[in-house]
Each structure stands twice: as C-alpha cells, then as structure tokens.
Prior knowledge:
This protein is 36% helix and 20% strand. It has helices spanning 77-88, 93-110, 135-147, 179-190, 211-219, 236-246, 250-257, 274-283, 291-297, 304-309, 326-341, 355-371, 404-411, 436-452, and strands at residues 5-13, 18-26, 32-33, 41-42, 46-49, 51-56, 112-119, 150-157, 197-199, 201-203, 228-232, 264-268, 286-289, 313-316, 386-389, 417-422, 425-429, 432-433. The protein starts with a strand and ends with a helix.
Amino acid sequence: MNEPSLYKAAWLWREGGWSTDAGFAVDASGTVRDDPGGNAESIGRWVLPGMPNLHSHAFQRAMAGLAERRGGSADSFWSWRETMYGFAAAIGPEALQAIAAQLYVEMLKAGYTRVCEFHYLHHRPDGTPYAPPEAMSLALIEAAREAGIGLTLLPVLYMSGGFDGRPLSTRQQRFGHDVDSYLRLLDALRAHEDDDLRVGIALHSLRAVPEAALREVLASELAQVGPIHIHIAEQIGEVQDCLAIRGARPVEWLFDHADVDARWCLVHATHLTEAETAQIARSGAVAGLCPTTEANLGDGLFPLAAYLDAGGALGIGSDSHISVSPVEELRWLEYGQRLQTRRRNIAARHPDDSVGETLWRAALAGGARASGLPLGALRAGARADLIVLDDNSPLLAVRDEASVLDSWLFAGNTPLVRDVMRAGQWVVRDFRHHDEERIATRYRAAVQRIAAG
Ligand code: ZN
C-alpha cells in the first residue's frame, strides 16, 4: 500500500476559515486522510478547497458572445434561446466532447474543481436516439476525465414545450424523453459512477415536466439517491404561466407537489415572494445562483439578504458560460445587490463579517451539497480538490488572512489561481493545465466545423 502524500500550507482554508501552518494527507486514491504528521511538502501560502460549479450547459460555451448584437425587437431570454437552439443543432458527441473538455480546462484554471452538468442535448437533431442512447452523456463523462475535473452528471427530463403540456417543437425534439426511456438512461449512467462521477436527476423546469411525470420519476427507485436539480422561477413569464395554468407560483407549486429537501438544487430561483424565499431556506435545498448568466440574460436579482438571514444554502454556477470564473460569479452576486439597494457589504450579515469569506464559505458548502458530495472542505474523506493562489501577485502583497479573500474576489483581475490539485493530482501547475494545447487545438477544429455548417 502506497504511503499517503503529505502537504502543508502557510494558510489552509478549513471548514470554518483559515488555519495557519496546517497540513493534510492524501492517499493513493486521491482522498484526504487525517494528517499522520511527518515531512510535508509545502505547496503555497494560500490554499483553499476548489469551488464546485453547480450549473453548466457545456455546449453553450462555444456560443458565448454570439448573442450580444441587438435583434429586431426587444431582446430577452426568449430571443437568446432561439440563437442557442440553432447552435445546438450542429453539435454531436464528438463536438460536445471537444467543447466540454476545453470548458472544463478553463474551469479548472479558474478554480472550479467540480461541475454539475445539467445535460439535455440527448438525441440526434431530428430526435432519434444515438447508439448507444447515452452517447452524448458519455461524451461529457469522457471530457471530464480528459480535463481531470470532478463531474456530477444530471441527465435532464424534458417532455413538453410549455405549462399547457404542448409537445416539443421541432428544435426541442432532441431533448425529449418519456418517463420510461428517461429512467433507462439514468440507470445506464449510474453504472459509470465512481469516486469522481456522481449521477443525479434533473427536471428541466416545471414547464417542461408535466405533473404526472414529476410524480412518477420522483417515486422511482432511482430517484431515492443523489441530487435533484430543476430550473425554477428564472423568468417573470414562467411565473405568470405557472400561475395561470397551475394556479400557483413555481416555487409554491413545487413545494406543494414534491418533498423538497437538502437533495434539491433550485437553479436560479430568481423571482420569489418572501414566503417562497423562507420556504427554500427552511428546506435545506440549495439555491443555484448563476449571476453572470442571469445578468447576461436580463433575468433579475435573487433576494440574497433575506435568504441569508433565513439561513438558506446557496452555490454558484456558470450556466451559459458567458463567464467561467467563481470570482466573477461571487463578485456579481454581491454587486447586483449593491446596485439595487444602494448599500455595501450585503452578503456580510453581521458586523465585521467579510463579504468574500461569507460567499466563498457558503458557495463551497452549497456547491458540495448540490454535487452530491458529503463534504465541501479539505477534511478526511473528501476528495483532495484544492487551489493554490499566486502569492507572487502584487495584489496579494501585504494581505493577511482577514483580507486575502476579499482582495482576490473583488480586485483580482488577472487570474490568481496558480496551481490546482484534483483528486490528489496536479492538473494545473503555474497557471498551465497539463493537456491544454491538445484540448484547445481540438476545440478550435470542432468550432470551425460547426461554423462551416
Ligand atoms: Zn440552466
């Protein structure tokens, strides 16, 4: 049996905050073990657990920046969605793997060590299944392995084109399943689970999943373990349609029809009443916030202060990948609130709290929960997923443990993640991913083929 590797840092972020001169051990499988003492390798001044990215549609990275030109009428989420559907039609398993691997390299370099892939691009563009039917899911699993990022795969159930139960449009055909074929997909994917791959459930949204199907999936044996994610209350139009057709607001309706608990991740949850905000907080469900995408799409602002005061759990996702950076997500989560309230330091709910520390701590814990991981910290039993900040950066000169996270999150304009360890292996060293040239070359060729039609 191999001896564990021993590491230490001048400052190590433990569950509650920074510890000085702290060490940990990593066993041969890449899991953190209790520090047995002995000669530890010093890996840096500022060492933190990597951030889970709780919401991703990988293929959308390749269209980032292609929907920023004004259209004929008022642009919104719905006009953006048309661009996205057109783009998705050109992507098969090979292109998806190339795009996702490039994205996952970018995520690792930015400080994300795990990603929850909310995956609905299941079939061929005409809606017929690939052989095997899970080919697109396997492309994502392969991409995560190549890049070395941890993956929580969330195959999406997508059945109807609106709350009225209308069938999927031509362009939505490739997203669709009935309940039986969805459960078969889930079963097939569960066979691939290991220390780094978890398979959970995603319901696309209430508008895409009829009530009977929701009930059937949640009652199935396969739904008794793993995280459950759903897009909810992202758009005012969605809230209005839900009210008109189901007689309740989306969050209200969901809590009336499902046992929402800590296994759930409610993605966006933007448009909430006070009662809904408190209800999500009480349930232990994670609010899956994607501030750069929500800003880019013009969605609206999450009621952060009320939610934190109610003890709510949250995590961050890069969703459409208009930006791939935990720094930007957390910064804009706070800045959106400041712009709206004309006040400062909103996420810090108590005197002397640091905004950066509060947000980092919350997003680590909520992100781990939404990923189906037991722990969000470098503790015995967790995967050894960590990042080392660049202590040579002038920005971090004369910063102590009380100010380093705020400086990084609010003033870090050049990347400050120097090294990244994933499951005990260094995947990024000195700002470079070990396979980034090959993955970027293949990505360029794939995007060129898509553009050429
Ligand atoms: Zn999404």
